[in-house]
Amino acid sequence: MDLATLWFFIVAFLFVGYFVLDGFDFGVGMSLPFLGRNDVSRRQVINTIGPIWDLNETWVIVAGACLFASFPEWYATLFSGFYLPLLLILLALILRGVSFEYRHQRESAAWKRGFDRMIVIGSAVPAFLWGVAFGNIVQGVAIDADHIYVGGFFALLNPYSLLVGLTTLLVFFLHGVLFVALKTDGQVHEDARRLAKIAAVPTILVAAGTVLWTIGIAAGREAPLLWLVVAAGVLAAVSLIAAVLFSLRGRDGRAFTAGAATVLFAVVMLFFALFPFVMPSTIDPAYSLTIANASSTPYTLQIMSWTALIALPLVIAYQTWTYWIFRKRVTRSSIEAAPAHA
Q: CA spacing 20 to 30 A to 224: which of 116, 180, 230, 241?
């Protein structure tokens, strides 16, 4: 395996980490209207991700930086062509982060409701648009001979990408609800379990459609890793069903783990379907961006490889330690005993 191919899979690994971790953050935010019956319940839901949401978001920063350094052509075409949806994602993430920090600054119920709405919007928009973006990357977009995206914004809103966007929205929602069930007690805990049952059927149906369509795209392109696309899709489906079954049996830890595996295998499936391209062209296959023609020089990739060898284990170790420190449930009694601004 050459360095360019290695870095394709490193970028895939970073996006897998981001979607697994920030995915349940999005789900927790989207679940707020359904699980937050009162301010105490809403604080309990928000506090499940309070110490970790910003740490989870660092994965997308690292992924973007590695994409820029290892595949500058891919980065340039992606960020110029997908400028508006990526800008909307960025604004939504800013909106959500500000809401977490400012919600408790006043006792006004109207003030808190306003920021609660922004948490929901700031979670739902990225959850949907990330799926739309990756759906277009896998399916291919209108790239000309100069590797410039020449389609408009509405061209990105095609049936396949919208289906992938709806899938990420629903899967992240279920992933977040399972996390709330794992991390809370009392009424919120019971409500989260019930909500997981309600969300299960539409999530499974929509996700199944995405898996089958993705396999069809990979088969039509004669993807060299087609068998891995199929395997990852099957594993994603099995993990999703397992997450629902574990939740029904009250095995919250296993349900959340299976939900995380669902996201992992789903993202892996998309990258396997994309390989060896990084952005296929729908105008002419010769105009497509591939791992070979979009990567940096071997010397740059070599330096990055040594850097990643040192930095990535440290990042993973620190994140693991953080999750261990904040592993306990957020109990209703602890919320009630804490000041209202906590």
A: 241
Classified by CATH at the fold level, domain 3-334 comes out as Formate dehydrogenase/DMSO reductase fold (1.20.1630)
Q: What angle (nearest 5°) sits at the alpha carbon of residue 92, between those of residues 154 and 159? A: 30
Coil, strand or helix at 166: helix
- Cα 289 from Cα 292, distance rounded (Å): 8
Residue extents of the structural domains in the chain:
3-334
Q: What are phi and psi of 280, to 5 degrees?
A: -70, 145
pLDDT in tens, 275-310: 999 999 999 999 999 999 999 999 999 999 999 999
Low-confidence ranges of the chain (pLDDT < 70): 337-342
pLDDT in tens, 94-123: 999 999 888 888 888 888 889 999 999 999
- Rounded to the nearest angstrom, the gap between the alpha carbon of residue 116 and the centroid of all alpha carbons in its chain is 21
* Cα angle 78, 83, 86; round to 5: 90
- From the list 1, 304, 15, 300, the residue with the least C-alpha distance to 137 is 15
Task: Report the alpha-carbon distance of residue 323 to residue 342 in Å, rounded.
Answer: 20
